Amino acid sequence: MIRVLLVDDDALVRAGLRMILGGAPDIEVVGEATDGAAGLDIARDCKPDVVLMDIRMPVMDGINATATLRAADDAPHVIVLTTFDADDLVVQALRAGAGGFLLKDSRPERLVGAVKAVCEGEPVLSPSVTRQLVDRVTASTPDNPANAARLERLTDREHEVAVLISRGLSNADIAADLYMSVPTVKAHVSRILAKLDAGNRVQAAIMVHEASR
């Protein structure tokens, strides 16, 4: 079972998410919170695998809550929820460690699929949105020589995989492009994230783009 925590100050949104996720046989909603601070407390108690996190909330917003969650040992995956496609707050949340984002009006099957995908290390972003977000971040960020140094830690094959990650490709797409099995790609992705000290694929993509400018 995939354990999910809902963090949103809108009771109707939480009810809708609970109803949708409750229909999936392998997903269990283990808690709800109305703000980021309460979400942190509940997460410590219920140990979710995935947190669906609203960005705009009272007391503590989703960006600070995401950063705190992702800094912890055995951190849960975080998917940020928003009503705006790739706005500045989404960019901040992804840099804080969120594994992707979903629009609140996403179709039910997209929501369920995203929860499962993020647990498998897959991006919860389309390739076009990934490129849009990465371009926005790198355009406003000064060059960071440390990123180039981190990329030098990668083997040639890992570098090839990292470049495809930066283009927003899924593990299956990378496997097809490089004629590898999906489990092999997953292993490469795990090593890449560790060597780059990146919390997720989006952070790795940002490093690749900054290093190649």
UniProtKB/TrEMBL annotation:
Superkingdom classification of source: Bacteria
Record's keyword terms, sorted: DNA-binding, Phosphoprotein, Transcription, Transcription regulation
PTM sites of type 4-aspartylphosphate: D54
Ranges where the Response regulatory domain occurs: 3-119
GO molecular function, a single term: DNA binding
Transcription regulation listed as a keyword: yes
Keyword set includes Transcription regulation: yes
UniProt cross-references to InterPro entries, sorted A to Z: CheY-like_superfamily (IPR011006), NreC/VraR/RcsB-like_REC (IPR058245), Sig_transdc_resp-reg_C-effctor (IPR016032), Sig_transdc_resp-reg_receiver (IPR001789), Tscrpt_reg_LuxR_C (IPR000792), WalR-like (IPR039420)
SUPFAM superfamilies given in the database record: C-terminal effector domain of the bipartite response regulators (SSF46894), CheY-like (SSF52172)
Domain HTH luxR-type: 147-212
A Gene Ontology BP annotation from the UniProt entry: phosphorelay signal transduction system
Classification via PANTHER family: TRANSCRIPTIONAL REGULATORY PROTEIN NARL-RELATED, TWO-COMPONENT RESPONSE REGULATOR
UniProt name for this protein: LuxR family two component transcriptional regulator
Species, as recorded: Yimella lutea
